[in-house]
Write a structure and sequence with these properties.
Its main location: membrane. 30% of the residues lie in helices and 20% in strands. It contains ten helices and 17 strands. It has a five-stranded antiparallel β-sheet with strand order 1-2-3-5-4, with helices on both faces. It starts with 10 loop residues before the first helix and ends in a 10-residue tail after the last strand. The C terminus is likely disordered.
C-alpha cells in the first residue's frame, strides 16, 4: 500500500474552507454523512464528505475508500484530493463536481427536459467506461457494489463521474468473486445473488448498470415507476413491453420525439436487459457492454426474462451500511476456500 500521508489535510483548513461546515455550504446528505462545498485558500473548490459519528462506516471503510480512490485516475471517476482523520472527525476531500448527481436531473420533471438523448447516451457510455476501468483496466480490480443514479456525479460538460467507494471491494488478479455475510449497497439496484446470498462479482455491478440504463432511458426510478395510475417495477414493465414488441413505450416522453435516435435507445434497452439476466453467466462483461454500445454491427444476444427484485417493506433506496468481514474467493481454489486477508494486505496490479 502506498503512503497516504501526502493526501492528509489539517481539520482546521477544511473547517475554514467549508465555513465551519455551515448549512449554506451543504451539498447533500447520504447514508455515511453530509457533503459540503468548500474553497481552499488557493481558490480551489472542493467537496468534503464528513462522516457522521453515528454512521456504520468505521475506520476500515474510511481507509478503504481513501486507499481505493487515491489509486484511481480516470475521467469517469470522481477524483480524491485528500482526507482528514483527526479525533472523531473523518473527512474525505474530493474534486468539486458542479452539476450534482444524475438523480437530480433524470428524476426531476423540470430538469429532465434538459437531458436530451445525446446527453443521456454520453452518460451511459461514460459510466460504462468508468466501470470497465474499475473491473479490468485499473491497477486494481474493484467491485463498486453501490452503483446508482445518486452516485453518478456530473461535471460542467455533463460528463459522468462514478462516486462513493465506501462499500467497494478490491481483488487480487486471480480473484473474480466474493462472498459476504453482511450486505452493503442499495436494494433497488442489487443483483439477486448478492441481495439473497451475499455473492458479489463484477457481474453484480453489471446488474446495477442495467437498472441505471433503464432509469436513464425512461426517466423513472426502478422501484417507483409510474405506469398510468399504477406503480410497478420498472424492469418488469420493460420486459413486458419488450416481449410485446412495444419497447418504445419505455422511452421518456421528453426524448421520444427524437426519432433519429430511437434505434439507439432501443439498443440501450436491449443491453440493459442483458445486464439484468438472473443467471450471472448470461450477463455481459463491461468490456462486452462497451463493444455493444459503440457498434451497431455487433449482434446482441436474445435476452431471457430478467431478474425482478422482490417487493418488500424495505425502502429500496435505503443504503445498507453493515460492516462485513469481506470474504474473497480465488479462482485457483477448486473448493472455493475463503480468503479473509484484510483489504490493506492487497496490492495493486
Amino acid at each position: 500500500m502506498n503512503s497516504t500521508g501526502s493526501l492528509q489535510y489539517d481539520f482546521g483548513t477544511i473547517e475554514v474552507a467549508t465555513n465551519h461546515f455551515s448549512d449554506r455550504n451543504k451539498l447533500g446528505e447520504g447514508g455515511f454523512g453530509a457533503v459540503y462545498k468548500g474553497t481552499l485558500q488557493n481558490g480551489e473548490e472542493i467537496a468534503v464528505k464528513r462522516l457522521s459519528n453515528g454512521s456504520n462506516q468505521g475506520q476500515q471503510e474510511f481507509q478503504n475508500e481513501v486507499i481505493l480512490v487515491a489509486k484511481l485516475q480516470h475521467r469517469n471517476l470522481v477524483r480524491l484530493l485528500g482526507f482528514c482523520f483527526e479525533g472523531t472527525e473523518r473527512l474525505l476531500i474530493y474534486e468539486f463536481v458542479p452539476n450534482a448527481s444524475l438523480d437530480h436531473f433524470i428524476f426531476d420533471s423540470a430538469r429532465r427536459s434538459y437531458m436530451d438523448w445525446e446527453k443521456r447516451y454520453k452518460i451511459i457510455c461514460g459510466v460504462a467506461r468508468g466501470l470497465l476501468y474499475l473491473h479490468e483496466d485499473s491497477r486494481l480490480r474493484i467491485i463498486h457494489r453501490d452503483l446508482k443514479a445518486s452516485n453518478v456525479l456530473l461535471d460542467t460538460e455533463m460528463n459522468p463521474k462514478i462516486a462513493d467507494f465506501g462499500t467497494a471491494r478490491l481483488f487480487n488478479m486471480d480473484e473474480t468473486q466474493g462472498i459476504t455475510r453482511k450486505i452493503v449497497g442499495t436494494y433497488g439496484y442489487m443483483a439477486p445473488e448478492y441481495a439473497f446470498y451475499g455473492q458479489f462479482s463484477a457481474k453484480s455491478d453489471v446488474f446495477s448498470f442495467g437498472i441505471l440504463v433503464l432509469e436513464i432511458v425512461s426517466g423513472q426510478k426502478n422501484h417507483s415507476f409510474q405506469n398510468g395510475e399504477n406503480v410497478e417495477n420498472l424492469a418488469s414493465f420493460v420486459w413486458k413491453n419488450w416481449q410485446e414488441g412495444t419497447a418504445s413505450n419505455i422511452i421518456d416522453p421528453a426524448i421520444k420525439n427524437n426519432s433519429a435516435s430511437i434505434r439507439e435507445m432501443i439498443k440501450c434497452i436491449h443491453i440493459a436487459l442483458l445486464c439484468l439476466q438472473e443467471n450471472v453467466t448470461n450477463r455481459p462483461t463491461m468490456d462486452s457492454v462497451m463493444l455493444m454500445l459503440n457498434s451497431f454491427s455487433v449482434a446482441l444476444a436474445v435476452p431471457l426474462e430478467p431478474a425482478f427484485f422482490i417487493s418488500s417493506s424495505i425502502d429500496p433506496e435505503l443504503p445498507l451500511l453493515a460492516d462485513d468481514n469481506n470474504s474473497r474467493v480465488s479462482d485457483k481454489s477448486s473448493d472455493y476456500s475463503i480468503n479473509r486477508d484484510p483489504i490493506t494486505d492487497l496490492h495493486s496490479r
